[in-house]
Amino acid sequence: MIDSQDITGLVLAGGRGSRMGGVDKGLQAFRGVPLALHMLLRLQVQVGTVMINANRNLAAYESFGVPVWPDADSDYAGPLSGFLTGLERCETPWLLTVPCDTPLFPHDLVRRLADAAEREQADIAMAAAPEMGDDGSMRVRAQPVFCLLRVDLLESLVHFTQAGRRKIDAWTGQHHCALVPFDTPGDDPSAFFNANTLAELHALESRGQP
Protein backbone atom coordinates (compact mmCIF):
# COMPACT_ATOMS: atom_id res chain seq x y z
CA MET A 1 0.00 0.00 0.00
CA ILE A 2 1.31 3.45 -0.96
CA ASP A 3 1.45 5.60 2.17
CA SER A 4 0.35 9.22 1.88
CA GLN A 5 3.66 10.25 3.46
CA ASP A 6 5.41 8.79 0.42
CA ILE A 7 3.61 11.24 -1.88
CA THR A 8 4.53 14.86 -2.59
CA GLY A 9 1.71 17.05 -3.90
CA LEU A 10 2.44 19.67 -6.57
CA VAL A 11 0.12 22.53 -7.53
CA LEU A 12 0.74 23.53 -11.15
CA ALA A 13 0.48 27.33 -11.37
CA GLY A 14 3.07 28.02 -14.03
CA GLY A 15 0.86 28.81 -17.02
CA ARG A 16 0.31 32.04 -18.92
CA GLY A 17 -3.39 32.38 -17.99
CA SER A 18 -4.01 33.46 -21.58
CA ARG A 19 -7.74 32.64 -21.51
CA MET A 20 -8.04 34.80 -18.38
CA GLY A 21 -6.52 37.74 -20.18
CA GLY A 22 -2.96 36.98 -19.12
CA VAL A 23 -3.56 37.31 -15.38
CA ASP A 24 -1.84 34.91 -13.01
CA LYS A 25 -4.61 32.35 -12.68
CA GLY A 26 -3.39 30.83 -9.42
CA LEU A 27 -3.68 34.19 -7.64
CA GLN A 28 -7.30 34.87 -8.66
CA ALA A 29 -9.75 34.74 -5.76
CA PHE A 30 -12.03 31.76 -5.22
CA ARG A 31 -14.36 32.25 -2.26
CA GLY A 32 -11.98 34.86 -0.89
CA VAL A 33 -8.84 32.72 -1.20
CA PRO A 34 -6.33 32.61 -4.08
CA LEU A 35 -7.07 29.63 -6.32
CA ALA A 36 -3.62 28.08 -5.85
CA LEU A 37 -3.87 28.39 -2.06
CA HIS A 38 -7.33 26.81 -2.10
CA MET A 39 -5.88 23.91 -4.11
CA LEU A 40 -2.92 23.68 -1.75
CA LEU A 41 -5.08 23.50 1.37
CA ARG A 42 -7.30 20.85 -0.22
CA LEU A 43 -4.27 18.83 -1.28
CA GLN A 44 -2.00 19.00 1.74
CA VAL A 45 -4.27 16.89 3.94
CA GLN A 46 -4.05 14.09 1.36
CA VAL A 47 -0.25 13.87 0.96
CA GLY A 48 2.94 13.99 3.01
CA THR A 49 4.33 17.27 1.69
CA VAL A 50 3.37 19.93 -0.85
CA MET A 51 5.00 22.43 -3.20
CA ILE A 52 4.03 24.83 -5.98
CA ASN A 53 5.24 25.23 -9.54
CA ALA A 54 5.00 28.90 -10.60
CA ASN A 55 6.82 31.10 -13.11
CA ARG A 56 5.89 34.63 -11.97
CA ASN A 57 4.83 36.45 -8.82
CA LEU A 58 7.02 34.02 -6.89
CA ALA A 59 6.94 36.10 -3.70
CA ALA A 60 3.14 35.90 -3.62
CA TYR A 61 3.26 32.12 -3.92
CA GLU A 62 6.05 31.84 -1.37
CA SER A 63 3.78 33.65 1.11
CA PHE A 64 1.68 30.45 1.19
CA GLY A 65 4.48 28.90 3.25
CA VAL A 66 5.57 26.02 1.00
CA PRO A 67 8.44 25.60 -1.49
CA VAL A 68 7.89 27.30 -4.86
CA TRP A 69 9.82 26.13 -7.93
CA PRO A 70 9.78 27.76 -11.39
CA ASP A 71 10.33 25.83 -14.59
CA ALA A 72 13.92 25.42 -15.71
CA ASP A 73 12.99 27.04 -19.03
CA SER A 74 11.16 30.33 -19.29
CA ASP A 75 8.89 29.79 -22.31
CA TYR A 76 5.79 28.48 -20.50
CA ALA A 77 6.15 25.08 -22.11
CA GLY A 78 3.01 23.62 -20.56
CA PRO A 79 2.11 21.10 -17.85
CA LEU A 80 4.93 18.68 -18.68
CA SER A 81 7.42 21.38 -17.69
CA GLY A 82 5.67 21.48 -14.32
CA PHE A 83 5.81 17.69 -14.11
CA LEU A 84 9.53 17.84 -14.84
CA THR A 85 10.14 20.53 -12.23
CA GLY A 86 8.21 18.52 -9.66
CA LEU A 87 10.03 15.26 -10.39
CA GLU A 88 13.37 17.04 -10.14
CA ARG A 89 12.50 18.51 -6.73
CA CYS A 90 10.49 15.63 -5.27
CA GLU A 91 12.06 13.81 -2.31
CA THR A 92 9.42 11.08 -1.99
CA PRO A 93 8.83 7.99 -4.18
CA TRP A 94 5.69 9.48 -5.72
CA LEU A 95 4.58 12.88 -7.07
CA LEU A 96 0.92 13.91 -7.33
CA THR A 97 0.10 16.82 -9.64
CA VAL A 98 -3.00 19.02 -9.66
CA PRO A 99 -3.69 22.18 -11.69
CA CYS A 100 -4.32 25.48 -9.92
CA ASP A 101 -7.75 26.03 -11.48
CA THR A 102 -9.92 23.08 -10.37
CA PRO A 103 -10.86 23.95 -6.78
CA LEU A 104 -13.54 21.30 -6.24
CA PHE A 105 -11.35 18.26 -6.89
CA PRO A 106 -12.18 15.20 -4.74
CA HIS A 107 -11.13 14.94 -1.12
CA ASP A 108 -10.20 11.30 -1.80
CA LEU A 109 -8.31 11.95 -5.04
CA VAL A 110 -4.90 10.86 -3.77
CA ARG A 111 -6.10 7.71 -2.01
CA ARG A 112 -7.98 6.44 -5.06
CA LEU A 113 -5.08 7.14 -7.42
CA ALA A 114 -2.62 5.51 -5.02
CA ASP A 115 -4.84 2.46 -4.58
CA ALA A 116 -5.08 2.03 -8.35
CA ALA A 117 -1.33 2.45 -8.86
CA GLU A 118 -0.67 -0.19 -6.20
CA ARG A 119 -3.36 -2.58 -7.43
CA GLU A 120 -2.23 -2.41 -11.06
CA GLN A 121 1.48 -2.01 -10.29
CA ALA A 122 1.38 1.05 -12.53
CA ASP A 123 3.98 3.78 -13.05
CA ILE A 124 1.26 6.40 -13.41
CA ALA A 125 -2.30 6.71 -12.11
CA MET A 126 -4.51 9.30 -13.80
CA ALA A 127 -7.97 10.55 -12.91
CA ALA A 128 -10.86 10.32 -15.37
CA ALA A 129 -14.18 12.14 -14.99
CA PRO A 130 -17.46 12.77 -16.81
CA GLU A 131 -17.37 15.50 -19.44
CA MET A 132 -19.96 16.75 -21.88
CA GLY A 133 -19.17 15.72 -25.43
CA ASP A 134 -19.78 17.80 -28.56
CA ASP A 135 -22.94 15.76 -29.17
CA GLY A 136 -24.30 16.61 -25.72
CA SER A 137 -23.66 13.17 -24.24
CA MET A 138 -21.61 12.56 -21.10
CA ARG A 139 -18.49 10.45 -21.33
CA VAL A 140 -15.64 9.67 -18.98
CA ARG A 141 -12.43 11.34 -20.12
CA ALA A 142 -8.90 11.33 -18.75
CA GLN A 143 -7.84 14.33 -16.66
CA PRO A 144 -4.09 14.14 -17.35
CA VAL A 145 -2.99 16.97 -15.04
CA PHE A 146 -4.42 14.99 -12.11
CA CYS A 147 -1.62 12.49 -12.14
CA LEU A 148 0.26 10.28 -9.66
CA LEU A 149 3.78 9.59 -10.94
CA ARG A 150 6.65 7.40 -9.83
CA VAL A 151 9.61 9.69 -9.26
CA ASP A 152 11.89 7.34 -11.18
CA LEU A 153 10.08 8.44 -14.36
CA LEU A 154 12.25 11.57 -14.30
CA GLU A 155 14.80 10.29 -16.81
CA SER A 156 12.06 9.29 -19.25
CA LEU A 157 10.47 12.73 -19.06
CA VAL A 158 13.82 14.50 -19.47
CA HIS A 159 14.44 12.59 -22.72
CA PHE A 160 10.88 13.25 -23.93
CA THR A 161 10.97 17.01 -23.31
CA GLN A 162 14.52 17.42 -24.61
CA ALA A 163 13.23 16.06 -27.90
CA GLY A 164 10.86 19.04 -28.02
CA ARG A 165 7.73 17.04 -27.23
CA ARG A 166 5.07 18.54 -24.95
CA LYS A 167 1.86 16.48 -25.08
CA ILE A 168 1.07 14.78 -21.80
CA ASP A 169 -0.77 11.81 -23.29
CA ALA A 170 2.10 11.11 -25.70
CA TRP A 171 4.44 10.75 -22.74
CA THR A 172 2.12 8.93 -20.32
CA GLY A 173 1.26 6.54 -23.16
CA GLN A 174 4.84 5.27 -23.03
CA HIS A 175 4.29 3.91 -19.51
CA HIS A 176 1.94 1.64 -17.61
CA CYS A 177 -0.86 4.04 -16.68
CA ALA A 178 -3.87 3.20 -14.52
CA LEU A 179 -6.95 5.23 -15.44
CA VAL A 180 -9.12 5.91 -12.39
CA PRO A 181 -12.77 6.92 -13.05
CA PHE A 182 -14.49 9.33 -10.68
CA ASP A 183 -18.03 8.64 -11.89
CA THR A 184 -19.62 6.64 -9.09
CA PRO A 185 -22.99 7.75 -7.63
CA GLY A 186 -21.24 9.39 -4.68
CA ASP A 187 -18.83 11.44 -6.81
CA ASP A 188 -19.42 15.15 -7.39
CA PRO A 189 -20.00 15.56 -11.16
CA SER A 190 -18.44 19.04 -11.00
CA ALA A 191 -15.32 17.92 -9.11
CA PHE A 192 -13.05 18.32 -12.12
CA PHE A 193 -14.60 21.47 -13.60
CA ASN A 194 -11.80 23.96 -14.17
CA ALA A 195 -11.85 27.73 -14.54
CA ASN A 196 -10.25 28.89 -17.78
CA THR A 197 -11.96 32.28 -17.74
CA LEU A 198 -13.06 34.68 -15.03
CA ALA A 199 -16.67 33.91 -15.93
CA GLU A 200 -16.07 30.20 -15.36
CA LEU A 201 -14.36 30.99 -12.07
CA HIS A 202 -17.39 33.00 -10.89
CA ALA A 203 -19.68 30.16 -11.99
CA LEU A 204 -17.66 27.70 -9.89
CA GLU A 205 -17.91 30.01 -6.89
CA SER A 206 -21.70 29.89 -7.09
CA ARG A 207 -21.82 26.11 -6.83
CA GLY A 208 -22.66 24.50 -3.50
CA GLN A 209 -19.84 23.81 -1.06
CA PRO A 210 -18.56 20.28 -1.77
Keywords summarizing the entry:
7 helices; 25% strand; two-stranded antiparallel ribbon; 7-stranded mixed β-sheet; alpha/beta; 29% helix; single chain; globular
Compact description:
With 210 residues, the chain is α/β, with parallel strands linked by helices.
The topology string of helices and strands comes to EEEHEHEHEHEEHHEH
Number of strands: 9
- How would you sum up the global shape? globular
Low-pLDDT stretches are none
List strands and helices in order, with pairings.
Blueprint: E1 7-13, E2 29-30, E3 33-34, H1 35-44, E4 49-54, H2 58-62, E5 68-69, H3 79-89, E6 94-99, H4 109-120, E7 124-132, E8 138-150, H5 154-162, H6 168-172, E9 177-181, H7 198-205
Parallel strand pairs: 1-4, 1-6, 4-5, 7-9
Antiparallel strand pairs: 2-3, 6-8, 7-8
Helix pairs in contact: 3-5
Describe it for me?
The protein has 210 residues and is of the alpha/beta class. It contains 7 helices and 9 strands; from the N terminus they run βββαβαβαβαββααβα. The chain has helices at 35-44, 58-62, 79-89, 109-120, 154-162, 168-172, 198-205, and strands at residues 7-13, 29-30, 33-34, 49-54, 68-69, 94-99, 124-132, 138-150, 177-181. The strands form 2 sheets. The protein has a 7-stranded mixed β-sheet with strand order 5-4-1-6-8-7-9, with helices on both faces. Strands 2-3 form a two-stranded antiparallel sheet. α2 (58-62) links the parallel β4 and β5. α3 runs antiparallel to α5. The model has no long low-confidence stretch (mean pLDDT 91).
